[in-house]
């Protein structure tokens, strides 16, 4: 355990768990982070100079698959085709094994808490080359994000989960107070305590504001859908520290959350010590990803996927501290040993040549795709079409999904994909630094991945974790699972352009623990 300066065990204020010992997540994470930084500055630099060739500023555009094998119709991974983002040059890189550690695909929604450059293209190209894609519809929506503030916004800002430990989430009980706050006639602090609906505390008395992210997010959506959203768009609720400041004092709250409060004020020009924050759910993490076995190998021999790029450590809900967990488990404890075992069988294999038919075909495919994008010369920018896709995804494949909305999404995404390939305008040239071309290549993948997510959600006729089907809920509006028919990982196989993917069901067997309905009320 980690002890503070006064000799007490340090604690981490985190939603779902309240105050937990810091060694469970933050202290361990900080110590690991400190160790890694120290190692990187010392032995890491020495190691990298000797053994690592770093290629910064590259986008991977294709994979080289050779030697056909039966499973999923794929072959061995033999390298990649990459585009130098600065010069636009297409390059070949041969290898006896390939590892993708390229993160998730949350930006298919256009607006998310991910960095704008984060994309699912690397994983999706693996899928197109024969790797199975598992549970693509499992998306985590984070409840404490700064709400959307305009049409020109490019990403959303995440406020730490820890804020829910001391903050209380509420909306006004009266619609007239909601209207007064929206118009500016009243401040949130003007609303009397008895006129505030602390809806998480009301609905989930056992956990209150510390319910899991998917539960808190859906509850916020329900209140806003009912007309109680507190900002001008009607898509925000309050996160209030008034009670915590009265109980603990401003200095304690400042010690715990001062940097977050400062960040919020810089973005919104509202002082959260005096007025409550406004928050609303946003896409944050994708639990689905490339299917891997226990060795972290995909269905393509020699192709490995680690971190958020794979599906392995999560079900319909993301596990806590998963970035640290997967960084350590996948990258430190598992992959160095499993990939070494794989490569040990190739110790006599010669260096992979890049002047082969497989590399020729892969490079030609990338160049043809780039040429086609640049030649369309339509009227719509890449961002214009991406925003349309994001709207389709958020409204139909977001926090609440239904058979009708998902079928609608599939049809609309297919139409939008045709529109993209007919009317997108990509300025600039191929052989130069070209951000619009980068975005267009990613959007082409998103337009297929979004449909795959909708198909997966349509197939899974139950509610579980971040996947909520409105037809499958309890009388109280909670997620209703179907463990008789859907206890499996849905692994999808690419079957070709404009062809429906094929589903393989991998059963989930529980020997020591058994699934049970979640309950945060008692």
Overview of the molecule:
The chain has helices spanning 26-51, 121-128, 163-166, 175-183, 199-203, 213-228, 242-248, 250-268, 322-344, 357-376, 382-396, 403-423, 435-459; strands spanning 11-14, 18-21, 58-66, 76-84, 90-94, 98-100, 133-134, 139-145, 168-172, 196-197, 237-240, 277-286, 289-290, 303-305, 488-493, 502-507. The protein has 522 residues and is an alpha+beta fold. A 5-stranded antiparallel β-sheet has the order 8-12-11-9-10. A 4-stranded antiparallel β-sheet has the order 13-7-15-16. β1 (11-14) and β2 (18-21) form a beta hairpin. α7 (242-248) packs antiparallel against α8 (250-268) and α11 (382-396) runs parallel beside α13. Residues 1-26 and 67-74 have low confidence and may be disordered.
Helix content: 25-40%
Mean pLDDT comes to 88
Largest sheet: 5 strands, antiparallel
Distance between the termini: 30 Å
Strand order of the largest sheet: 8-12-11-9-10
Helix and strand element order? EEHEEEEHEEHEHEHHEHHEEEHHHHHEE
Taking all Cα atoms into account, the compactness measure Rg is 24 Å
Element layout with pairings:
Blueprint: E1 11-14, E2 18-21, H1 26-51, E3 58-66, E4 76-84, E5 90-94, E6 98-100, H2 121-128, E7 133-134, E8 139-145, H3 163-166, E9 168-172, H4 175-183, E10 196-197, H5 199-203, H6 213-228, E11 237-240, H7 242-248, H8 250-268, E12 277-286, E13 289-290, E14 303-305, H9 322-344, H10 357-376, H11 382-396, H12 403-423, H13 435-459, E15 488-493, E16 502-507
Parallel strand pairs: 6-14
Antiparallel strand pairs: 1-2, 3-4, 4-5, 7-13, 7-15, 8-12, 9-10, 9-11, 11-12, 15-16
């Amino acid at each position: 355990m980690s002890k503070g300066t006064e000799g007490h065990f340090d604690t981490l204020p985190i939603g779902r768990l309240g105050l937990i010992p810091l060694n469970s997540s933050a202290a361990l994470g900080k110590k690991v982070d400190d160790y890694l930084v120290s190692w990187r500055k010392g032995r890491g630099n020495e190691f990298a100079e000797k053994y690592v060739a770093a290629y910064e500023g590259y986008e991977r555009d294709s994979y080289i698959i050779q030697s056909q094998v039966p499973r999923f119709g794929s072959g061995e991974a033999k390298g990649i085709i990459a585009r130098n983002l600065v010069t636009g040059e297409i390059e070949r890189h041969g290898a006896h094994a390939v590892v993708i550690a390229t993160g998730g695909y949350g930006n298919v929604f256009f607006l998310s808490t991910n960095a704008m450059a984060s994309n699912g293209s690397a994983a999706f190209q693996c899928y197109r080359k024969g790797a199975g894609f598992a549970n693509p519809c499992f998306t985590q929506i984070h409840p404490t994000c700064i709400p959307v503030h305009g049409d020109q916004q490019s990403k959303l800002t995440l406020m730490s989960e820890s804020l829910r430990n001391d903050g209380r989430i509420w909306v006004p009980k009266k619609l007239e107070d909601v209207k007064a706050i929206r118009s500016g006639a009243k401040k949130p602090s003007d609303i009397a305590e008895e006129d505030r609906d602390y809806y998480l505390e009301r609905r989930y008395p056992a956990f209150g504001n510390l319910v899991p992210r998917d539960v808190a997010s859906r509850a916020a959506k329900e209140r806003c859908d009912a007309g109680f959203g507190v900002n001008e768009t009607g898509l925000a609720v309050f996160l209030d520290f008034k009670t915590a400041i009265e109980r603990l004092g401003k200095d304690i709250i400042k010690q715990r959350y001062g940097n977050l409060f400062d960040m919020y004020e810089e973005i919104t020009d509202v002082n959260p010590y005096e007025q409550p924050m406004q928050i609303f759910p946003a896409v944050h993490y994708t639990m689905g990803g490339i299917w891997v076995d226990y060795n972290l190998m995909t269905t393509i021999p020699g192709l490995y996927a680690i971190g958020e790029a794979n599906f392995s450590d999560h079900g319909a809900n993301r596990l806590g501290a998963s970035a640290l967990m997967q960084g350590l488990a996948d990258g430190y404890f598992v992959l160095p040993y499993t990939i070494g075992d794989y490569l040990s069988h190739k110790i006599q294999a010669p260096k992979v040549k890049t002047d082969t038919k497989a590399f020729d075909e892969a490079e030609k495919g990338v160049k043809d795709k780039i040429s086609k994008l640049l030649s369309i010369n339509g009227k719509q920018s890449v961002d214009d079409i991406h925003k349309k896709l994001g709207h389709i995804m958020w409204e139909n494949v977001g926090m609440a999904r239904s058979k009708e909305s998902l079928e609608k999404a599939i049809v609309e995404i297919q139409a939008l994909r045709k529109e993209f390939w007919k009317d997108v305008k990509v300025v600039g040239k191929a052989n130069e630094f070209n951000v619009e071309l980068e975005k267009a290549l990613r959007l082409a993948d998103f337009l297929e991945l979004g449909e795959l997510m909708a198909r997966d959600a349509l197939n899974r006729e139950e509610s579980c974790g971040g996947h909520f089907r409105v037809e499958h809920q309890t009388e109280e509006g909670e997620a209703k699972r179907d463990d008789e028919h859907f206890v499996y990982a849905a692994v999808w196989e690419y079957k070709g352009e404009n062809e429906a993917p094929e589903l393989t069901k991998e059963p989930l067997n529980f020997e020591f623990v058994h699934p049970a309905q979640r309950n945060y009320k008692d």
